[in-house]
Amino acid sequence: MVRRLPRVEGQVRGLRRMPEQDTYCVDALTQVSAADTALRSCAVAPLGEHLDCCVTEAIVQGGDQAPAKIGEASQAIARLLRS
Q1: What is the per-residue pLDDT across 68-78, written as a single tens digit (0 to 9) for each?
Q2: Fewer beta carbons below 10 Å: N end or C end of the chain?
């Protein structure tokens, strides 16, 4: 995520300059799509970390925390799929 976010930031800065540079509309849309895809890829890392660490630990410990952590992960996945 640390390496990817600066790349996304650069893409967004480039997008901001496009109207000033009278960029062709389809080229701007292509860049919006690329930035969106890059940002979504940044979301995969913390989601995987949450599953590997928080959810796994809660399952191993048992009790009420396991269903809560699984629910959090499910909600996070649903938010990613909706956006």
Answers
A1: 999 999 999 99
A2: C
11: helix, strand or coil: helix
Alpha-carbon distance of 65 to 71, in angstroms, equals: 10
- Assign 19 to helix, strand or coil: coil
Neighbours of 46 (CB within 10 A): 11
pTM given for the model: 0.67
H-helix or E-strand spanning residue 63: none
**Residue 56 · residue 48 · CB < 8 Å:** no
CA-to-CA distance for 44 and 29, rounded, in angstroms?
23
CA neighbours closer than 13 Å in the CB half-sphere of residue 71: 5
Cβ-contact 44, 5 below 8 angstroms = no
